[in-house]
Write a structure and sequence with these properties.
- By secondary structure, the protein is mainly α.
- Helix content is 67%, strand content 7%.
- The protein has a domain of 151 residues.
- A two-stranded antiparallel ribbon has the order 1-2.
- Helix 2 packs antiparallel against helix 4 and helix 6 packs antiparallel against helix 7.
- The longest helix is centred in the N-terminal third of the chain and has 35 residues.
- It is elongated.
- The C terminus is likely disordered.
């Protein structure tokens, strides 16, 4: 649509544009359905252009995030399958990691489908009403929640197993403390995730406003960040301890593992900063 598609009109003589008027944040009117008893009527509601812009920007951000997640999951799945040695493909950790990447690929694909479904219609975002949802829309919504739980189970199981493997040479007391702490945090994070997924699905099926779950949703991200940070600390500490032991044994050539250790220390700042960013969200 270009400038030639617009035609100037004569405004009423008593019409005045408010001082400081911004057309990008102006209000416009939408017709919405209103159910009054057994009758359905129509009413009007005022919507701001800023709300429409927020929907557009948020959709673009979610699409980018889901697209990156989908591409990375596929890439890592291919790398894992092709580069893992044949004798290690029979290990339980290999099956867990493969299943995690595969299910996360499906989850990201479903999230991409969600953005192109009726759930993400701009009308339902700027008004409290949504267009009629099809069976496919409901199936996508429920499957996203189901696969989110499956991914969480597989990831926490894989992390716990890896902690057990790297701590197998540590003293029994230290191993018990580490496994107890990481398992407790993982179970707590999964418990909060399960509660949110269950209530989110239930509220959607019962047509209940899910805004009351905003605080619980924020808690899921906080617990997830804490669990990732804790597991990262364990892996990095164990790797650094192994490097020191090899140096005491006059075995300084440990290049690749030193690189992994340095990168592990650097990447731990990401979940840490994410934790504080989450704590500063509007719901808190």
């Amino acid at each position: 649509m270009g400038p030639d598609d617009f035609h100037a009109v004569d405004l009423p003589s008593n019409f005045q544009v408010p001082p400081g008027f911004e057309p990008w944040t102006q209000n416009f009117t939408l017709i919405v359905p209103v159910v009054m008893g057994d009758e359905s009527k129509w009413a009007v509601t005022t919507v701001n252009m800023a709300d429409v812009n927020y929907w557009s920007v948020n959709t673009a951000r979610l699409a980018t995030s889901n697209g990156v997640g989908l591409g990375v999951s596929i890439m890592l799945l291919v790398v894992l399958v092709l580069l893992t040695k044949a004798e290690k493909r029979k290990s339980f950790i290999f099956y867990l990691n493969t299943a995690s990447l595969f299910t996360n690929t499906i989850r990201c694909l479903l999230l991409a489908m969600y953005l192109s479904s009726t759930w993400n219609d701009p009308y339902s975002d700027v008004t409290p009403y949504s267009p009629p949802l099809t069976n496919a829309d409901w199936a996508i919504y429920v499957l996203i929640n189901v696969f989110s739980l499956i991914v969480a189970i597989l990831v926490y199981a894989s992390l716990s197993l890896q902690v057990w493997i790297v701590c197998v040479t540590t003293p029994p007391l230290h191993r018990t403390i580490i496994m107890g702490a990481t398992t407790t945090v993982a179970c707590a994070a999964f418990g909060v995730k399960f509660a949110f997924v269950y209530l989110n699905t239930k509220y959607a099926l019962d047509n209940v406003d899910p805004d009351s779950l905003a605080e619980l949703n924020g808690m899921t991200y906080i617990m997830q960040t804490i669990s990732i940070w804790l597991f990262s600390c364990v892996f990095t500490w164990k790797l650094g301890h192994a490097i020191l032991q090899r140096r005491r044994l006059n075995m300084p050539r440990f290049g690749p593992m030193q690189i992994v250790f340095i990168m592990g220390c650097q990447t731990m700042s990401i979940p840490g900063s994410s934790l504080f960013a989450t704590l500063n969200t509007e719901i808190y």
